[in-house]
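Exercise 3.2. Students should predict the tertiary structure of the chain below and write it as structure tokens, then compare their answer with the key that follows.

Predict this chain's 3D structure.
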Amino acid sequence: MIVALAALTGRTPRPLDPECGAHGPLLLAVVDEAACIGCTLCIAACPVDAIVGAQKRMHTVLPSLCSGCELCVAPCPVDCISLQPAGRDWAPDDAASARDRFAARATRLARNERIAKRAVPVTAHIVSADRAQRQAVVAAALARARARRATPEKKS
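Answer key:
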């Protein structure tokens, strides 16, 4: 991998700095299904969309898509993601596929962000009116509760 990176950048290969980590086998993320709470933080962290699931539902990692980057491990609040040896080597096809999935994810996220920004000005007055209405309902409920507490109960 170091030789390939050196060739891409046009530099001479240098040994891996031990402070940056050590070369090891390809690892794949595995979700402990019994412990998963469905928080979706791992899905948001995965740069290649290798994790599937829904909010408050168990997630799983698609081994054929996982690049072993470990970015899903840290955000997991219940530590239900572990890394296990893939049992295969990282191939050039894996790298090309991961790059394509990363680019597709980045495009999708940028599109969603543009759509969200466009929608904010249109609905801003509706959201603020809705918020004011909710606040008025809560204030009225609090006033009723205070009035009930202030009035002594009648004993029968």
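Discussion points: The beta strands are 27-31, 51-52, 60-61, 81-85. The two ends are 85 Å apart (CA to CA).
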